[in-house]
Every structure is written in C-alpha cells, then in structure tokens.
Amino acid sequence: MGSLAELPYCKEKEYDPEDPRCARVILTGQFERLDNTTAEYQFAKDALYSRHPAMKFWPKVHKFYIGKLCVENIIVLNDFGGEVFVTPEDYFNANDTLLYENRYNKIAAIPSF
C-alpha cells in the first residue's frame, strides 16, 4: 500500500496531499486476529517489533493484539475524474515490472519482498 502524498513527489510539485495527482491506494476489509501459535503470527510480530520496538513493552492491560487485514476492496485514486476499483485478485497478482503512466505522474508497482 502506498501513497505519493507520503513521498517528496507531491511536495516538490507543490500539490496538496489531497490532490488526486498524489496517488493513493485505499484498502478495506476485515481485520483478523492472528493465532499466536502460527508462523504467520511470529513473522508479523517480528516485523512489527522491528519497526516499533517500544511496542514490546506495552502493558498487557492495553489488550493489544497482532492481526492482519483480509482485503476485500481496493480503490486507486491517482487522477481527476474518480477512483478505480481493483479486484484483490488483480492487485495481488500485479506484474511489478509494468509501469502505469498518466498525464500527471508515473507510478511503478513496488516489488514484494
């Protein structure tokens, strides 16, 4: 998930972050709690704590838990004239070597790691 509003691109172009040319992807769906005995949980926990180490020490009374977003809807807003709806199947099977180009900006898919 990404947004040109979070990168220097929009600032350099002097676009307001809400300008459609500051491309964004909006993901919605159900948030699912992960089972803490699974490899997926351990992977998510390690990734989360590597980016936010202070979370390791949050009090148990906060009832914090690790989960994932089960994506149901994907909306791309990157131009004037409205959003584009993308199916989760198309989104997760995107070819990261292709560029999308419009008259305002170029957007390359970010390869998965």
TrEMBL record:
Gene3D superfamilies: Electron Transport, Fmn-binding Protein, Chain A. It comes from the Eukaryota. Pfam families: CREG_beta-barrel. Residues 5-93 form the CREG-like beta-barrel domain. GO terms for cellular component: cytoplasm; extracellular space. This is CREG-like beta-barrel domain-containing protein.
